[in-house]
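Let us begin with a simple case.
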Amino acid sequence: MDNKILNQYYEKNVKMRRDETERNTKVVLPLVEDILRYVNQRDKRFMIQTVKVGSYHTHLKVKRADEFDFSVVVDVGQLHWKSDTQPRYYGFDSNNNKVESKGAALPSPPVGQYFTVIPSLRDQWDREGLNDGGASITFQNDIVPIKVKRRFKSLVAEAVNQPKIRSRVKMDRLSESPAITFSVELPNGKYPISIDLCPMIESKLEFKSEFNWPRVSSEWPSNQKISCIKNIGIHEVAKAPFYWTLSFAACEKELLEGVDENGTCRRKCLRILKTLKENMWCKPGVKKGLTSYHLKNVLFWECEDRPSETEWQQELLAERVTTMTYRLLGYLQRGNLPLYFHTGVNLLASKDKDVLHQVATRISSFLHNPEQYLR
């Protein structure tokens, strides 16, 4: 792989236009604040404050600023790990609508997922009338992810139905994604802008030893960076219906903060891989086995294995893109990509093996003759 060709590819296919980015940002940020202000007025448990995550806010977006991600804090305060082995006797009714009592217990949460108990706060919400009827986001002593998502979506839907907003906004259906998604049409815009609002419990949980981070022998990140990440702690998002999923998004954002302050090419490598994924490895219309989040974790593992700044100089851009691509191929062939901050979680576990094999085949073809694809 040639540095010159790769830099030309970056300029043509990866780099964002600054004027478009500024224009889109001026529209998105006030709109999100208006929506969340309305939501907060209707239900104070959803805060106006957001945690800005995702590719745009971590400077990893490619080509154009058409996706913005925000984590919306559900106000339950800081949480602590508790030993909790009690079975949960609730689940969906026959129509998958109402959460109700069940005779059979829910299965134990998968690795990286947990029940979250807030008995005293639930009592307070009940006393204040915040948790009545359709506004209920708990069952027994648990705050339930699917109930949080549904309550939040209903309030966002109300907000975007206001006359000054509804002509420009289109809501998506509730999906398995933790986020509520809607798109915005700009006047004279060439493309819609997608906005994700993801309810999040700002838990600030500490890292457990079984997460295997930080690793004692690692030289990256620095001890100072590790301390900052530990102070941020781990949050929770509503990905599964009944189990809260640990979220390391804020930790990942901190890990990337200042990562290229010495003129290195870590972010550039990742942005190139993201573009290759979209344009070649997982083309539009084909079922995707690979996500940008997978690639971000590939970068983290590559950084840990190559901790020296000298290995990330701009003149080594092609070499690093090559080694990261081979690393990704290895994960796909093994069917196991460990989450950087919690190695017990395999990020490929739920993916279709046939789709992963097809992606691996395309990546192998690319590595055999990259210049053919990059020109």
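The second case is a distinct protein. As before, the sequence precedes its structure tokens.
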Amino acid sequence: MFGKAVLNICFATVVLLMAGCGVFSSVSGELEPSETLNLDEQFEFSEVLENRENIALDMRVPIKSGYEIVGASFDPDMLRLDNFFEYDDDGQRRVKYIYTAIAIGSSDVLVKMQPVGGGNIEIYKRVTISVEKN
């Protein structure tokens, strides 16, 4: 009897620990953003968000041009990166960044790329995000 109780408590603890660590979350990014901004057509974009609103920045990986995306820089006092993932869309590699506005102000998100074989890092996309009160 005591052994079953200990076993059940251990099992429940492991399940809760795994859920807390995000083991059950999807790789495809199940967080639903307030809006998605497709960054395929231009270099520079701007968007206005309300505080605590989130946004997804979705773009192609410039692999055909010989580049890979190596990260994004942003103001962590104004935006929080909630998720980043790469995915395949009909044979085309894409990436998605999901940010949440956490402070009022304006900041640039600079998505950076680098040649696949190494080399200088360049800015791939620039998104100016302005956060206003609700």
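The two ends are 55 Å apart (CA to CA). The chain has one domain: 33-132.
Keep these points in mind for the review questions at the end of the chapter.
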